[in-house]
Amino acid sequence: MLETCQRRHMLLGLSLLVAATVIVLIIESRFPDSENTRRSRAQQFVIENNSTCWQREEYSVIQECHPCTEFDIVSKSLGVCIHTHYKEVLRCKSGETVTRSCDRVALIDQRNFIKFEITCFCIGSLSYLVSYARDRILSRRTHLKIERQLNRMQ
Questions:
Q1: What is the pTM of this model?
Q2: What are the contacts of 11-18 at 24+ separation with CB within 8 A?
Q3: What per-residue confidence (pLDDT) applies to 2?
Q4: Which positions of the chain have pLDDT values less than 70?
Q5: What is the DSSP string of 87-110?
Q6: Residue 126: its pLDDT value, please?
Q7: What is the signed CA dihedral for 53, 59, 64, 69, rounded to 10 degrees?
Q8: What pLDDT was estimated at residue 44?
Q9: DSSP 8-state assignment for residue 5
Q10: 3-class SS of residue 65
Q11: Which of 34, 37, 96, 142 is most buried per CB count within 10 Å?
């Protein structure tokens, strides 16, 4: 079936697939999780000093999710660093500052997926170039062979 497709149709299809993949990645990373997913995640993460003000009131993020220091992990001085090795600092509307454990898996998965897509694109491009060069060589050999046969007949 691929032999009957024109090159521009194949490139159009490939670019549409790449565009769809990028759009899905953007949509999934931009829209927040549903309320049920947030609650289940909140239950699995440890909160420093058992403060849950961020669950019942508005809060702002002071420091985004970042890795805990090696000292915090080894000494277990900060309880939120024990499970995920990542922490996030929040300030609740009441003024209380809270450190909570956070999950960095989504960002790492997204980064790994993008690396995988780039690798696949590079391998695919290289395979296309090798196939194209091989096709040109074989076409040239066939053309020369036919030309030699026609010259012998004359």
A1: 0.42
A2: 18/117, 18/121
A3: 56
A4: 1-3, 32-51, 105-107
A5: EEEEEETTS-EEEEE---HHHHHH
A6: 95
A7: -30
A8: 54
A9: S
A10: strand
A11: 96
pLDDT for the residue numbered 142: 95
How crowded is the C-beta side of 140, counted as CA atoms within 13 Å? Answer: 6
Dist CA 53 CA 60 (whole Å)? 11
Task: Please state, in angstroms and rounded to a whole number, the distance separating the CA atoms of residues 32 and 28.
Answer: 8
Task: Please work out, in degrees rounded to the nearest 5, the angle formed at the alpha carbon of residue 114 by the alpha carbons of 109 and 120.
Answer: 125
Q: For 57-90, write each residue's pLDDT tens digit.
A: 888 888 888 888 888 888 877 778 887 888 888 8
88: burial class by Cβ within 10 Å (0-12, 13-18, 19+)? Answer: buried
**CATH says 45-103 is which class?**
alpha beta
Quick check: 98 and 48 in contact, CB under 8 A?
yes
pLDDT given at position 75:
82
The amino acid at residue 115 is K
Decide if 86 contacts 101 (C-beta within 8 A): yes
- Comparing CA positions, the residue from 61, 49, 57 lying closest to residue 94 is 57
Lookup: tokens for 133: 């060069």
Question: How many other CB atoms are there within 10 angstroms of residue 117's CB atom?
Answer: 14
- Residue 72, classed as helix, strand or coil, is helix
Structure tokens at 146: 């036919």
